[in-house]
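Quick question, first post here. What does this chain look like in 3D?
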Amino acid sequence: MSRHALARRRAPRPSSLALAALVPAAMLAAAAGDVQPLAAGRAAEPVVERVVTVADDVPYGLEIVAAPAAFSSAPTAVPPQVSFAAAQTGTASRWRLDTRPLLLPVGLAPERGLQVRTILVSRTISATFPEIHSIGGVRPDALRWHPDGLALDVMIPNPSSATGIALGNEIVSFVLKNAVRFGIQDAIWRGVYYTPGGAQSGGYGHYDHVHITTTGGGYPSGSEVYPR
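> Answer (accepted):
Ran it through. C-alpha cells below.
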C-alpha cells in the first residue's frame, strides 16, 4: 500500500477550535469540585473527663492521658502542671488523678507526748477548720488527761462572738459524729460536757476553747500513718 493510502486512513487530529472548547469545560469541572458540598463525615467524639483515685501502680502526682490508636496504644504520663489545653491535643479520653494528699499533715498541736488518737484529732481539726490557729496538747494539770497526751484544747477565735460560738459548736458536733474513728471520750464547751452518749450542762467552764479527750490508743512508734 502506498504512503498516500496510509495517510488517508489515519484519524484526523482535532482542530484548534475543538481544543479551545474542551479546555474551559475541564476547568469548569475541576472548579465544581471546590464548590460542591463535601460528604458529611463522622462527628468527632467529645473529650471525656473522669476522676479516679490513685492506684498503687500509678505514680503519685501524675495525670494519665489515653491517646487514640492513631497516636499511641499506651497511656502517656503528663506532669500535673501541664494545662488541659496543652495536653488534650489528639486525645479521645482523659483520666485525671486526685492529687490531694491522702495523709494528714502535722496539725497545730505539738505532737510530742500525744497518743495516736489525739494526734489524729489534732491533725483532722487543723485540716478541716482553717479558722483555728492554736491547739494545746500536753501540759501539766491536776487531772491526767493533758499530761498523758489524751486531751486537746482547741482555741476558738473571738469565742464570745456569734461566729466564735458557732465555730465551737461545729467542732463539737464534728468530733462527736466521728467519735468511733477518733476514739472520743468527751468534749467540753461553754459549760456543757458532751459524750458520744449525750450531753450534761452546768459548771464545766471552757468558754474560750473546746476541750476534747480521746481514749488515746497508745504512744506513737514512728510508723503510724494518719489518713484523711
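The CA atoms of residues 70 and 164 lie 59 Å apart.
The first strand starts at residue 48 and ends at 52.
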